[in-house]
Amino acid sequence: MRLVILGGGESGIGTAILGKKKGFDVFVSDFGKIKENYKEVLIINEIAWEEEKHTEDLILNGDLVMKSPGIPEKSPIVKKLLEKGIPVLSEIEFAAPYTNATIIGITGSNGKTTTTMLAYHLLKSAGLNVGLGGNIGKSFAWQVADNDYDSYVLELSSFQLDGIVNFKPHIAIITNISPDHLDRYDYKYENYIDSKFRITMNQTEDDYLIYDADDEAIAEWLKTHTTKAKLIPFSLTKTLSEGAYIKNNKMEISINQEEFTMDTEHIALEGKHNMKNAMAATSVAKLMQIRKLTIRESLSNFQGVEHRLEKVLKIQNVQYINDSKATNVNATFFALDSMNTPTVWIVGGVDKGNDYNELMSLVREKVKAIICLGVDNKKIIDAFGNVVDMMVEVDNMNDAVRMAQRLTEKGDTVLLSPACASFDLFENYEDRGNQFKQAVKNL
């Protein structure tokens, strides 16, 4: 069996390792350059590869193709494969049959990284033999090849879910759904929503779907579609007989006739959106039979996620916050919503069809100045030009941070929460966040 892998990044190399181990004839093809450390892995494992091209003769003879989530279905080589009837899968679909581990799959427009990291922290602190992967950390396929975990916590993007056929998590979470990546879904929101719900399509009565009961898109989908999984909702506004909710500053969870309560003030994460992430992750811990004491300890000592509302430094009584991971409007909404002091907001990048109107009331209430950090800032200027007193355009992070310092007074906050992708000026959101942190340290 010939396994062709499109994309020589983390998921591609991991799949190549697992494929080789399982006896496939493996070939890796990357249209860009493959990183040196990944090339070394391919050479050591005697796996054939090419870079900066897709040689059709070597690709269209595959029995099975794994494409990296970054490659759209519309790309010419993928179209040709599909026309030939060659199955094109995601890494998750390829690797899942080779492990008997319990899989916890987490998707959503926002909050999925925090929820994934927190669920992993809860299970690991309880002494479970658990792996972390998917969209973060080491490739799932690579771990299936090299480790023998009893369970996995996987962060899953809609792109990864688009490439599944039989993949089935025992516990699925949909943190929330808001318009994102619509450029990959023909600009149809319903296509993107359907893509997220693929996480539950193969679940049975023995499986669980944990979801945000306050989310309109999720509620609508559940009204008109069915899943066999047992539903476990969480909510900030409703009192639920089954599921998780917040009442009188207490998180209350009731699952399978078992109760768990905890004062929200003892939960390390702050902000309303993080209470949702905590309810989702704690529901996983309850389903995995983790002791209440362990859950309480883990929720109170969790460190949070880098580049997500990360407090960098306080300089002259001004707090600098790195929220570079906010690559869409909804994520930035949560960030602005959690600001309690006058805020200088650094925003901008590659716009994915953003509608800034939903931020309007928060900007009026909390933002004193806006710094646009992008190649094309027209939409942001049009949206907020008349709303804030001060608006500045810059084209690099050092200028953004120095300008922010000039515009602040004691007690203010500087918030990097771009609401956009980073690819116009930075390698990725991590690079953008790291540059911000370095620029703040240089002040």
Automatic annotation (TrEMBL):
<dbReference type="Pfam" id="PF21377">
    <property type="entry name" value="MurD_N"/>
</dbReference>
<keyword id="KW-0132">Cell division</keyword>
<feature type="domain" description="Mur ligase central">
    <location>
        <begin position="106"/>
        <end position="284"/>
    </location>
</feature>
<dbReference type="InterPro" id="IPR004101">
    <property type="entry name" value="Mur_ligase_C"/>
</dbReference>
<keyword id="KW-0573">Peptidoglycan synthesis</keyword>
<comment type="pathway">
    <text>Cell wall biogenesis; peptidoglycan biosynthesis.</text>
</comment>
<keyword id="KW-0961">Cell wall biogenesis/degradation</keyword>
<dbReference type="Pfam" id="PF02875">
    <property type="entry name" value="Mur_ligase_C"/>
</dbReference>
<keyword id="KW-0963">Cytoplasm</keyword>
<keyword id="KW-0436">Ligase</keyword>
<dbReference type="InterPro" id="IPR036615">
    <property type="entry name" value="Mur_ligase_C_dom_sf"/>
</dbReference>
<dbReference type="InterPro" id="IPR036565">
    <property type="entry name" value="Mur-like_cat_sf"/>
</dbReference>
<dbReference type="GO" id="GO:0008764">
    <property type="term" value="F:UDP-N-acetylmuramoylalanine-D-glutamate ligase activity"/>
</dbReference>
<keyword id="KW-0067">ATP-binding</keyword>
<dbReference type="InterPro" id="IPR013221">
    <property type="entry name" value="Mur_ligase_cen"/>
</dbReference>
<keyword id="KW-0133">Cell shape</keyword>
<dbReference type="InterPro" id="IPR005762">
    <property type="entry name" value="MurD"/>
</dbReference>
<feature type="domain" description="Mur ligase C-terminal">
    <location>
        <begin position="307"/>
        <end position="420"/>
    </location>
</feature>
<comment type="similarity">
    <text>Belongs to the MurCDEF family.</text>
</comment>
<protein>
    <recommendedName>
        <fullName>UDP-N-acetylmuramoylalanine--D-glutamate ligase</fullName>
        <ecNumber>6.3.2.9</ecNumber>
    </recommendedName>
</protein>
<keyword id="KW-0131">Cell cycle</keyword>
<keyword id="KW-0547">Nucleotide-binding</keyword>
<comment type="function">
    <text>Cell wall formation. Catalyzes the addition of glutamate to the nucleotide precursor UDP-N-acetylmuramoyl-L-alanine (UMA).</text>
</comment>
<dbReference type="Pfam" id="PF08245">
    <property type="entry name" value="Mur_ligase_M"/>
</dbReference>
<feature type="binding site">
    <location>
        <begin position="108"/>
        <end position="114"/>
    </location>
    <ligand>
        <name>ATP</name>
    </ligand>
</feature>
